[in-house]
Structure formats: C-alpha cells, structure tokens
Input
Amino acid sequence: MNATATADAQRSEPAEGRTGGCLCGRIRFSTEGPATFPHTCACRHCQKLGGTPVMWWVGFPTVTWTGEGGEPSWYETFPGEAKRGFCPTCGTRVAAVDRDIPEIGINVTALDDTSGEDLVPIHASFHDNAVRWLPSVAQARK
Output
C-alpha cells in the first residue's frame, strides 16, 4: 500500500467480513476486521501494475485465502519492503503486503461489494504523480 495511515485518517467502523477474488475465480479471499485507510495510489508501481492512473487500496487486519488457487503469486515491488499479490491465471491484482504496515492491503476492486462507506478513499497517495485530467481524492477527510 505504501502509505502511512494517520490516526485521524483511520475509520472506526464495526468489524465486518467481506469476500472477494480475482476475475477468473481461482483466487478467493475473506477478510475480518474493520477496513482501514482506504486510499488511492498514483505511484509509478501502482500505475504500471494496475495499468491505470490510480489503484484503490484498503487494509484489513486479517485476510484468509479461500479459493482453489490458494494464496496469490507475489511480486516484490521493493525487495524486502513490499510485495503485491496477483492471480497467476488471469493477472488480477488483489493484495499488497508492506513491511511497515500491519494490515494486508486489498485492491478494493477485487472485493465482491465495493459499496461500503468505509471503502470511500480518505487520502490520495503520490498525489503529485497523478494524471492531470482525473479529479483527485481530497488529501484527508474526517
């Protein structure tokens, strides 16, 4: 996720389980606990990995891999620091693990239901790298 959550940028929603997975269905997961630090990221890695101007991330304390494909394949974007998980069959980007962030990052678009208020981005990481023509998420919302 490569973003540091601040105390006032955290959501304190009730714990809620969510499900999600990749496009082909081989990688499936369930989450436990509240969604934390929903944000967009416009860093060059997210742009290249996602093939899009921004990726939409949220953290969860617990993620359990439930599909027949098991855990995603991991690509170390920053060796020893951060890795991104994807389905080796269809290529869907589903997760992120960063050494200094306790939650597991989930690409919000990999969730089965993206309508939760606790998923609305509260921050835009690497704002200075964002494309000019796409409106930005406010830098912080309470």
Summary: Residues 1-15 have pLDDT under 50 and may be disordered. The first strand starts at residue 18 and ends at 21. Strands lie at 18-21, 28-32, 36-41, 55-60, 62-65, 73-78, 82-86, 93-98, 104-107, 123-125.
